[in-house]
TrEMBL record:
Residues 1-202 form the AMP-dependent synthetase/ligase domain. Pfam families: AMP-binding. GO terms for biological process: amino acid activation for nonribosomal peptide biosynthetic process; secondary metabolite biosynthetic process. GO terms for cellular component: cytosol. Keywords: Phosphopantetheine, Phosphoprotein. GO terms for molecular function: phosphopantetheine binding. This is Non-ribosomal peptide synthetase. InterPro entries: AMP-dep_synth/lig_dom. It comes from the Bacteria.
């Protein structure tokens, strides 16, 4: 996937009003360079003058050791897949003294669907705003993250399934049927993403590029949209519920 450098800088400028990252933030590099979330972790720290803690591989495999590292290094911005965070929650439950020393202010979920109902256990031990939990839907082809949804205990308790959130400021979402027509609320459709976060193409794969990066009928001439392959359902409140892959 060919992603220009500009896509990364606009990823942070388009989400700055939600986060307010700065030089006092400490980020953890938990993920492999082969996983696109590492782009968020590395450049989030460097572009804002923060500190980046590179997590040793053996620590990434030990939730208890990772919890202690987060507390000792005073990490403020943590990115996790939901499955990794569920293990970290178990370590936090087993070692509440270390959990009470955490300095986190943001935990960002990405990479897979988040089961909101499982977060209630976390909220029994930690305040809703210390840290704020955020769900960010995204795809490599849209430059790591494409949406933002700040969570709280009430939202997590009342949600059925996983919620996508609103698109970043410079992106757009369209939920369409197989004929590229918008679907009404309550009806499942495929999510298409528009805007400057879209990757340039698939390197040396023109056929796949033409299949996934398609002309956008809702924008200016030449505008593109990315066909995600993900099924979502628009809600009456304007949100989107994630349903899974359309090709599963």
């Amino acid at each position: 996937v060919v992603v220009p450098h500009h896509n990364v800088t606009r990823l942070f400028s388009s989400s700055e009003h939600w986060y307010g990252f700065g030089p006092d933030d400490v980020w953890s590099l938990f993920h492999s360079f082969a996983f696109d979330v590492s782009v968020w972790e590395i450049w989030g720290a460097l572009l804002h003058g923060g500190r980046l803690v590179v997590v040793p591989q053996e620590v990434t495999r030990s939730p208890g050791d990772f919890l202690r590292l987060l507390a000792d290094e005073r990490v403020t911005v943590l990115s996790q897949t939901p499955s990794a965070f569920y293990q970290l929650m178990a370590a936090d439950r087993a070692d509440p003294r270390t959990g009470s020393r955490l300095g986190l202010r943001r935990i960002v979920f990405a990479g897979e669907a988040l089961d909101l109902g499982r977060l209630d256990e976390w909220y029994t031990r930690h305040a809703e705003d210390a840290p704020v939990l955020v769900n960010m839907y995204g795809i490599t082809e849209t430059t790591v993250h494409a949406s933002f949804l700040a969570l709280d205990r009430a939202l997590a308790a009342g949600a059925d399934g996983s919620l996508v959130g609103e698109p970043l400021a410079d992106l757009g979402f369209h939920v369409l049927d197989q004929d590229l027509r918008p679907v009404p609320p309550g009806t499942a459709g495929e999510l298409y993403v528009t805007g400057p976060g879209l990757a340039r193409n698939y390197a040396n794969r023109p056929g796949l590029t033409a299949e996934r990066f398609v002309a956008c009928p809702f924008g200016a001439p030449g505008a593109r949209m990315y066909r995600s392959g993900d099924l979502v359902r628009p809600r009456a409140d304007g949100g989107l519920e994630y349903l899974g892959r359309g090709d599963d």
